[in-house]
Amino acid sequence: MPLQVAWRMLVDQKGRSALATGGIFIAILLVFIELGFFVAVPQGGMLIYDHMSFDLLVCSNRYLFQAQSGQFPRARLAAARTVAEVSAASPVYLGGAKWQDANGGLKVDISVIGIDPQAGIFAVPDIERQNAVLDRPDTVLVDGSSRSLFGPLQAERIVDIGGHRMTIGGVYELGTGFLGLGIALASEANFFRMFPERPPDTVNLGLVSLKPGADPARAADALRAILPADMQVFTRPELVAHEVAYWTTRTATGLIFGSGLVVSFVVGIMVLYQTLATQITRQLPQFATLKAIGHTNRYLDAIVLSESFLITAVAFVPALGAALAIYALIRSETLLPLTLSAAQLGAVLLITLVMAAASAFLSLGSLRRADPAEVF
Questions:
Q1: Predicted local distance difference test score (pLDDT) of residue 6
Q2: What is the pTM of this model?
Q3: Cα distance between residue 204 and residue 121, in whole Å
Q4: Which one, of 101, 97, 133, 98, lies nearest residue 115 by Cα?
Q5: How many Å apart are CA 155 and CA 170, to the nearest integer?
Q6: 105: helix, strand or coil
Q7: Is the CB of residue 180 less than 8 Å from the CB of residue 60?
Q8: Residues 6+ apart with CB under 8 A from 237
Q9: Can you list the residues of the chain whose pLDDT is less than 50?
Q10: What sign does the CA torsion over 245, 229, 93, 99 have?
Q11: Beta strands of the chain (E only): which ranges?
């Protein structure tokens, strides 16, 4: 019954109800976008790692995130292999260079990842089937997600990377994460041809694989015990926690999108509160009549709550559709892994319900003025 009365009241004030729905639509859409970015940025930092095969990550203690990982002596990986639980420790080299067409033109920043093609570092079918291509001299694979600034990425195209002529051997699909606008994948030998000034005995990352049944936490402790203090060892959960903490607390990501989420929440409450308070004021005679015929304050409260939830429910569906369209646009333009998971959808729905309930409770003070003695 309160739901029916609330619907009739909203329909009776079509203009105001539509305006309130529009305001809540914008607030919910902002919540979707702010929360999406807040979650997607750390995921972008993990994008490359999520497609690498390893149990532990060994790196310098100067490691901030993948693109600023620091360097350490390759001999540390040999020491890591002495741990009983370790089956392999593979080096990964990271470098930044300028990409230019062989015939000249625009120079674009590109990140280069150097690996041993036979180590099976990447669990990406496009890369696995082209491992032999990586072994060719002066040949690279290029991520198909690289920006259009790099021009056509067809095989056998000759390009200049860091002043060295390289041949595109093929394309793979993975994503660039936060390594830059584009990524070229090279063998160790080809990597050092592009970066001849780089000491060959220094490594950016060490990917450690463990023997079947080995406990990653215990193996990590064993590695920390034998490696110098200038090294770090991460299990996969620890690496995820580090990346999330870095992007949400040590960069502007947490401040911008976290505060944006709070502002969107507050704006939604205030828009809906103003709408409900105004409608209650305009409909005090109707509420007083309901009270006069025997309905309790709890019944009237239920009507206001129903109005609030109806407005947010009507606004939620188009806000969800608009958010999905914006997510798709952002993914294509920024390459961020901006997706809507079930957990995020549930979080936005919960925030929306709290928004509706809070605005309704704030407006109940106006309802207490519905005194039948004053109206009649």
A1: 65
A2: 0.78
A3: 14
A4: 133
A5: 5
A6: coil
A7: no
A8: none
A9: none
A10: positive
A11: 56-60, 72-73, 86-101, 108-115, 139-143, 158-161, 164-172, 183-187, 202-203, 205-210, 231-235
Cα–Cα distance measured from residue 133 to residue 186, given in angstroms and rounded to the nearest whole number: 9
Of 256, 259, 272, 281, the C-alpha closest to 357 is: 272
Residue 300, token pair as written in the block? 């009237």
Instruction: Give 81: exposed, middle or buried? Use CB within 10 Å, 0-12, 13-18, 19+.
Output: exposed
Q: Give, rounded to a whole angstrom, the gap between the first and last alpha carbons of the chain.
A: 24
Query: What is the per-residue burial (b if ≥16 Cβ within 10 Å, else e) of 136-160?
Result: eebbbbbbebbeeebbebeeebebb
Select from 205, 221, 239, 201 the least CA-distant residue to 122.
205
Summarised one tens digit per residue, pLDDT across range 194-212 is 999 998 899 999 999 999 9
Q: Phi and psi at residue 108, in whole multiples of 5°? A: -125, 140
Which distant-in-sequence residues (6+ apart) come within 8 Å of 190 by Cβ? 114, 134, 137, 138, 139, 140, 166
pLDDT tens digits for range 128-148: 999 899 999 999 999 988 888
The C-alpha R_g of the chain, in whole angstroms, comes to 29
For CA atoms 217, 221, 227, 233, give the dihedral sign. Answer: positive
Residue 329, CA distances (Å) to 66, 108, 324, 326 in order: 25, 23, 9, 5
* Interatomic CA distance for residues 376 and 372, integer angstroms: 6
Instruction: Give Cβ neighbours of residue 291 (< 8 Å, ≥ 6 apart).
Output: 297, 300, 370, 371, 372
CA atoms within 13 A on the CB side of 3: 3
Domain ranges of the chain: 2-45+251-375, 62-228
Q: Could you tell me the two tokens for 352?
A: 């929306």
Where does residue 97 rank: exposed (0-12), middle (13-18), buried (19+ CB within 10 A)? buried
Q: d(Cα 321, Cα 339) in Å, to the nearest integer?
A: 13
Which residues are paired to 165 by β-bridges?
160
Tokens 């997706």 appear where? 339
